[in-house]
Amino acid sequence: MSLLVLENICKVYPAMVSGGLEVIKNINLQLDAGQSAAIVGPSGSGKSTLLNIIGTLDLPTSGSVTLDGQDLLSLNEKEKALIRNRKIGFIFQLHHLLPQCTVLENVIIPSLVNDAARDVEQRARALLEQVGLSNRVDSRPGQLSGGERQRVAVVRSMINSPKLLLADEPTGSLDRTSAEKLADLLVDMNRKHGMTLIVVTHSMHLAGRMERVYELADGVLTCRKKV
């Protein structure tokens, strides 16, 4: 059974024109556990909107989203928040780290509302060591480079062992060397931990590292590469 299933997803924004602005048109997508996929396309094509719908941060106008056998659109806001905390990890272009907190504190924040979390500090330290930041656990975001901050954001997204990892332009604000290192990290984490990974990106280099590449253009999602 597929981990993630999108069926006939449509998104229409109200507009002055008759019928509104349809940015996503009847999108269907299935991904199994542990698969990786990239979504590419021009700016304004709806890539981030689609990612937000998958992550329950936005609602489609019609269609269904099923994650791990659960219909996400049937849930209330409290239930969606619980799913986001326990089953979905988010990585954004801007890291959104809390400047007043240390690296370790930033990483463990998502676990504070998860009663099922155990030995979270030990897990956080182990993950930070995996990404080469064991010597930075007591540093604050302002003391880190851009690439280091994004690595912290990756670890934070994984602290609750989510089944699905969503990354929105994770390398967009990084220099070429840092972007390459982050791409290596995402691929490595996907393989080591078996989390399904979806990356929205303008970088064809990063997209090419994924098992599948989809293009979203004129509201239609097409598969350009499948391994």
Give me the secondary-structure topology:
Blueprint: E1 4-13, E2 21-31, E3 36-40, H1 47-54, E4 62-67, E5 70-71, H2 77-87, E6 88-91, H3 103-108, H4 120-130, H5 146-158, E7 164-168, H6 176-193, E8 196-200, H7 204-208, E9 212-217, E10 220-226
Describe this structure in words.
- The protein has 227 residues and is α/β, with parallel strands linked by helices.
- 32% of the residues lie in helices and 27% in strands.
- It has seven helices and ten strands.
- The chain has a six-stranded mixed β-sheet, sandwiched between helices.
- The radius of gyration is 18 Å and the shape is globular.
Number of domains: 1
SS class: alpha/beta
Distance between the termini: 18 Å
Order of helices and strands: EEEHEEHEHHHEHEHEE
The dominant shape is globular
Number of distinct helices = 7
Beta-strand share of residues: 25-35%
Query: Count the strands?
Result: 10
Supply the CATH superfamily name.
P-loop containing nucleotide triphosphate hydrolases
CATH class: Alpha Beta
The order of strands across the largest sheet is 6-7-8-3-9-10
Q: What proportion of the residues is helical, as a percent range?
A: 25-40%
Which features characterize this protein?
about 230 residues, alpha/beta, Rossmann fold, six-stranded mixed sheet, four-stranded antiparallel sheet, 7 helices, about 25% strand, globular
